[in-house]
Amino acid sequence: MIRRLSQARERGIPEATVARLPLYLRALNGMAERGLATVSSEDLAVAAGVNSAKLRKDLSHLGSYGTRGVGYDVEYLVYQISRELGLTQDWAVAIVGVGNLGRALANYGGFVSRGFRVAALLDADPEVVGDHIAGLNVEHIDELEAVIRRRGVSIVVLATPAAAAQQVAERVIAVGVTSILNFAPVVLAVPEGVDIRKVDLSIELQILAFHEQRKTDRMTGGPAMAEEWPEAVDL
Amino acid sequence: MIRRLSQARERGIPEATVARLPLYLRALNGMAERGLATVSSEDLAVAAGVNSAKLRKDLSHLGSYGTRGVGYDVEYLVYQISRELGLTQDWAVAIVGVGNLGRALANYGGFVSRGFRVAALLDADPEVVGDHIAGLNVEHIDELEAVIRRRGVSIVVLATPAAAAQQVAERVIAVGVTSILNFAPVVLAVPEGVDIRKVDLSIELQILAFHEQRKTDRMTGGPAMAEEWPEAVDL
DNA sequence: GTCCCTTTGTGAACCGATGCACAAAGTGAG
DNA sequence: CTCACTTTGTGCATCGGTTCACAAAGGGAC
Ligand SMILES: NC(=O)c1ccc[n+]([C@@H]2O[C@H](COP(=O)([O-])OP(=O)(O)OC[C@H]3O[C@@H](n4cnc5c(N)ncnc54)[C@H](O)[C@@H]3O)[C@@H](O)[C@H]2O)c1
Ligand SMILES: NC(=O)c1ccc[n+]([C@@H]2O[C@H](COP(=O)([O-])OP(=O)(O)OC[C@H]3O[C@@H](n4cnc5c(N)ncnc54)[C@H](O)[C@@H]3O)[C@@H](O)[C@H]2O)c1
Which domain covers residue A34, as residue numbers? Predict the structure, then answer.
C-alpha cells in the first residue's frame, strides 16, 4: 500500500496552514503578473511575510509541488492553492444589513476578484429596501430564505446591528447555510457543523491598545511596584 | 520574598489571552447592564463562547480576582480588564483613506464606545479633502505628520488602496506611531517594535470557502481516489 | 556519465496553548 | 464551630504549531 504521495493531502490540512494559503496565493498572483515563472520558498516566504521553513511545510500539506534545486512553478502553484481553497468554483455571497458597513462591502471590488460574487443584499429598513447598490437591488429581509435558495447562496456576510445578528444567523442556518462571516460584535451561538468567522474592529483596537500601553509603560520606567496594587480600588 | 500574588501578573500575559480579554469585557458589560453583581467562570465562559477552564486560566494571568465559592465581582472585573487592556486611558486614532471603508469606520459608533476617539481623517484625493464626516474635517495627506503630532495620535487605521499602504505606513512610523490596524490587502514590512494587525475580508472568505468545499465534498462522497490526482494537470 | 550547487521536503526538538481534574479556599446553614 | 457545598486557581498531560537542520532530489556544467 503506497500512501506516501497522497498521505500528506489525506485528511485535513492544519487550520493554521489554511489561514496562510490565501496569503501565499496573493503573493503568487503578484509574481505571476510580474512574469516570474518559478519562485523559491525563500522568496515566496519573504513576499508573504513568513519564515521559509513554515512555507515549505505548509505547501507540503497540499502535495509535493516543488522541484528541488529550482523552486515552485508560479502558475502551477497558483492553480493548486486555488483548487485547494475552493476558488476554482464560484461562490454566491449574500450581505445582510446594508448600512454603513454593508454598503462598503457591497462596493468592494476585491470581493469579486476571487471566485466570490455578491448575489444578494438584504435589509430590514423599508428606506433601504429597493435601493440600487453596486448594481444590485436591496431586498427585504422577509425574502431572506427565498433569496438564499433561489440564488444558491452558500456564504452569508452579517453586517446588521449586534441585536439582530443572532436571529438572522438562525434563519440562514435553517435554510442550510453553514458558512457565516460576522461583523456584528456578538458571540453567535450556532450548531455543530456551522463555520463562523468574525471580524471585530473593536477587538483589534483593544489588542493594539494593550501593546501600546505596554510599550509606553516601559518607556516611563513601568509602573512602580508599589503602585501596581493600589490596595482595594473601590468601585 | 513573597511573589505569590504578583507572580502571575509579572512579565507578560499570553497573546492568546490578550486576544480574548475584549471578549470577556464585552460579555461583562452586558451583565453589568443587566444588573448582575457577580458571575461564575462557568456563566461568563458561556457568554463569551469559551471553555470555563480557559477563562479561569486567562483571568488568573491578571491576578486573583475571584472569590471561591462565589465567582467574580462583575464591576471589579470590568475595571481590572479595562485597566489591563489600557482602556482607562483615551486613545486618539487617525483613519487614513476615507473611501467606502474609511467612511464606514468613521461613522461607526462602537469605535468611540471604548476609549477610542477618532481624532483625524486623512485622504489624498482633493475631492474628498474638506468633506465633513462624522463631525470631522477630512485633511490632506500632506498634513499627515503634523496632524499626528498635533493630535497625539497613537493608533493609525489604514484604509487606503493596497498600493498606498506601505508608503503611508512608513510615514506614520517615522513620526513615532507603533500601532497600526491595516485593512489593505498587503503584507506591510515594518521595523521591529511596530505592531501591525490586519483585517482582511478576502482571506476570511477564502477560509470559509475552503471549509465549505470540504463539507460539500463530503456530502457527495468526496473526490474519488482516482480523480484526486488528475496526473499532470497542465497549465 | 560524474560532480557540484541549489533548494525541497520532513524528522525531531521545542514552545505556547488547551483542557482535565482536583486541592484549596471560601460561603452559608445549623 | 462544624459540615456540606460551591467555585476558584493551577499542576499536569496533551496537542497543534513553529523552527531548526539536514538528507534526498534535481539541475547544469563539463
Ligand atoms: N461601520 C463599521 O465600520 C463597523 C465596524 C465594525 C463593526 N461594525 C458592526 O457591523 C454592523 C453594521 O454596522 P453599520 O455601521 O453598517 O451599522 P448600520 O446601522 O449603518 O447598518 C445596519 C443595517 O442593518 C439593517 N438591519 C437592522 N436589523 C436588521 C435585520 N433584522 N435584518 C436585516 N437588516 C437589518 C439596518 O436597517 C441597517 O441598514 C454592526 O453590528 C456594527 O457593530 C461596523
Ligand atoms: N470596502 C471594503 O469593504 C473593503 C473590504 C476589505 C478591504 N478593503 C480594503 O480597504 C482599502 C480601502 O477600501 P475602499 O473600498 O474604501 O477603497 P476606496 O477606493 O473607496 O477608498 C480609498 C481611499 O483612499 C484614498 N487614498 C488613496 N491613496 C491615498 C494615499 N496615498 N494617502 C491617503 N489616502 C489615499 C483615496 O482617495 C480613497 O478615498 C482597500 O485597500 C481595500 O482593498 C476594503
Answer: 15-83
Q: Give the β-pairing of B116-123 and B136-140.
A: parallel
Contact status, residue A116 vs residue A91, Cβ threshold 8 Å? yes
Q: What's the confidence (pLDDT) of residue A42?
A: 97
Q: Of A53, A83, A113, which marks where a domain is finished? A: A83
Give the residue ranges of chain A where pLDDT is below 70.
Answer: 1-11, 221-235
Residue pLDDT, tens place only, A18-73: 999 999 999 999 999 999 999 999 999 999 999 999 999 999 999 999 999 999 99
Residues B117 and B192 in one domain: yes
Is residue A214 situated within a structural domain? no
The protein residue whose alpha carbon is closest to atom 39 in ligand 1 is A99
Pick B76's closest partner by Cβ from A101, A185, A235. A235
Which range among A192-196, B131-135, B229-233 shows the weakest confidence by mean pLDDT?
B229-233
Nine-digit cell string for A12: 485535513
The total number of structural domains that make up chain B: 2
Q: Please provide the DSSP assignment of B125-170 as one string.
A: -TTTTT-EETTEEEEEGGGHHHHHHHHT--EEEE-S-HHHHHHHHH
Is A180 within a domain? yes
Q: Are B158 and B96 in contact (CB under 8 A)?
A: yes
Q: Three-class SS of residue B117?
A: strand
- Using a 7 A cutoff on CB, list residues near strand C: A 8, 40-42, 52-53, 56-57, 59-60, 64-72; B 14-17, 50-51, 53-54, 56-57, 67-70
Cα(A128) to centroid(ligand 1), Å: 12
Q: What is the pLDDT of residues B142-185, one digit of tens each?
A: 999 999 999 999 999 999 999 999 999 999 999 999 999 999 99
Kindly state whether residue A3 falls inside one of the protein's structural domains: no
Pick the closest to residue A155 from A100, A115, A103 (CA basis).
Answer: A115
Q: For residue range B184-218, what is the model confidence (pLDDT) as tens digits?
A: 999 999 999 999 999 999 999 999 999 999 998 77
- Interface mutation target, options B5, B24, B111, B213, chain A, most CBs of A under 10 Å: B213
pTM of the model: 0.92
Determine the residue of A95, A98, A100 to mutate for testing ligand 1's pocket, defined as the one with the most ligand atoms within 8 A of the Cβ atom: A100
Q: What pLDDT does B218 receive? A: 72
Q: Which of B205, B222, B202, B48 is nearest to A179 (CA)?
A: B205
**Residue B233 to residue A185, Cβ atoms within 8 A:** no
- In tens, the pLDDT along B159-168 reads 999 999 999 9
Q: Are residues B110 and B194 in the same domain?
A: yes
